[in-house]
């Protein structure tokens, strides 16, 4: 694990060193809410900055600022112009981003890179019509890797989840928790460690990356997984619309050249990388800490996830979107990626 973390930090350092070689005329402010060592800040934002500088031939750069607002308020930080760019987790704002749940439903086969690229394409083709990001410029869509159960006590079957108090981030993870009979506790990711350490929750549903990014291996050593994961998490990278419109034609074209599918792919690759780093925390005693669902539980999960998927399709359809076509489109895109 230490080797992988050092490699990620070294990559970030090289990217930041490269950024220092430019004297940019325009420096965009990035609002970020995860710890500095999280992949978003240690890998993705430095890579984005490097891409931006290279595409604009040094005219544009970016810098991260922390603590501008809590995670659920990040959309409004950019909407109001307190920062130029941010990233949001859609599930932190229940009912505000319904269409985003299409990427979160269980059943898709593939890694975060494939899912993030498919998500961007689905957003352009179908989901943007829901107009859920009104007032801001969407630069990329992304999703983390498969959601898993991480807990203090060892869980060996789906039945044991019933009655547990679980931190659930919102979106489809909340639907999954309800279907499994868990009591949901909603706190942002940066608060998960203290929530578990204080015994306010028995466990959490997050991707594997959380074991390292948020040090969950210390407070939730055990992992229970189902094939494909319980859910995925939906994120967007957003930009203040006035800032975007105020760029010169040349700079706007440079930004456009790295946004969309390109940035979504880079973001997905980052999530896959930090999932690997998270998995490395279990390398020494994986057989004791990791439990994969039995064949019986896998069959049970197949039954349980059906109503979850149907519920999301119904919600999204009410937005005037052909949800079944979106589901099929994402699955096909992921298979071809």
Topology (SSEs and partners):
Elements (H helix, E strand, L loop, with lengths): L1 H18 L6 E7 L6 H17 L4 E7 L7 H6 L5 E5 L22 H14 L10 E8 L3 E5 L13 E3 L4 H8 L3 E3 L6 H6 L5 E5 L2 H4 L8 E4 L8 E7 H6 L2 H10 L2 H19 L6 H4 E3 L2 H23 L5 H14 L1
Parallel strand pairs: 1-2, 1-3, 6-7, 6-8, 9-11
Antiparallel strand pairs: 3-10, 4-10, 5-8, 5-9
Order of helices and strands: HEHEHEHEEEHEHEHEEHHHHEHH
Give the overall shape, derived from the CA principal axes: globular
Rg, please?
Answer: 19 Å
Average pLDDT for all residues: 93
Query: Which strand order does the major sheet show?
Result: 7-6-8-5-9-11
Please summarize the sheet with the most strands.
6 strands, mixed
Give the helix proportion (percent range): 40-55%
Q: How many domains make up the coordinates?
A: 2
CATH superfamily of the largest domain: Bacterial extracellular solute-binding protein, family 7
Q: Ranges with pLDDT <50 over ≥5 residues?
A: 1-22
Strand content is 15-25%
CATH topology of the largest domain: D-Maltodextrin-Binding Protein, domain 2
Rounded to the nearest angstrom, the distance between the terminal CA atoms is: 28 Å
CATH architecture of the largest domain: 3-Layer(aba) Sandwich
- The SS-based structural class is alpha/beta
Level-1 CATH class name of the largest domain: Alpha Beta
Number of helices: 13
- Strand tally is 11
């Amino acid at each position: 694990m230490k080797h992988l973390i050092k490699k990620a930090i070294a990559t970030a350092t090289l990217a930041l060193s490269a950024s220092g070689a430019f004297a940019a005329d325009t420096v965009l402010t990035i609002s970020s809410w995860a710890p500095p060592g999280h992949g978003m800040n240690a890998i993705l934002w430095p890579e984005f900055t490097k891409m931006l500088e290279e595409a604009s031939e040094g005219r544009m750069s970016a810098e991260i600022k922390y603590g501008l607002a809590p995670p659920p308020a990040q959309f409004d930080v950019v909407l109001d112009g307190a920062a130029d760019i941010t990233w949001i987790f859609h599930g932190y704002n229940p009912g505000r981003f319904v269409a985003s749940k299409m990427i979160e439903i269980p059943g898709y086969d593939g890694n975060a890179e494939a899912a993030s690229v498919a998500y961007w394409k689905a957003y352009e083709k179908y989901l943007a019509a829901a107009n859920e990001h009104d007032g801001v410029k969407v630069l990329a869509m992304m999703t983390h890797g498969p959601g898993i159960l991480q807990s203090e006590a060892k869980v060996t079957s789906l039945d044991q989840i019933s009655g547990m108090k679980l931190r659930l981030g919102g979106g489809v993870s909340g639907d999954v928790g309800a279907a499994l009979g868990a009591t949901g506790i909603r706190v942002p990711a940066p608060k998960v460690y203290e929530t578990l350490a204080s015994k306010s929750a028995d466990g959490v549903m997050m991707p594997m990356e959380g074991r390292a990014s948020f040090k969950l291996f210390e407070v939730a050593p055990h992992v229970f997984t189902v094939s494909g994961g319980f859910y995925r998490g939906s994120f967007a990278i957003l930009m203040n619309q006035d800032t975007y419109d105020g760029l010169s034609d040349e700079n706007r074209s440079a930004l456009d050249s790295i946004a969309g599918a390109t940035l979504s792919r880079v973001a997905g690759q980052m999530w896959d990388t930090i999932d690997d780093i998270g998995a490395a925390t279990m390398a020494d005693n994986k057989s004791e800490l990791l439990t994969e669902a039995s064949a019986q539980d896998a069959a049970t999960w197949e039954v349980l996830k059906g109503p979850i998927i149907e519920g999301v399709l119904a919600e999204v359809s009410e937005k005037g979107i052909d949800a079944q076509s979106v589901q099929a489109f994402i699955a096909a895109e992921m298979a071809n990626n």
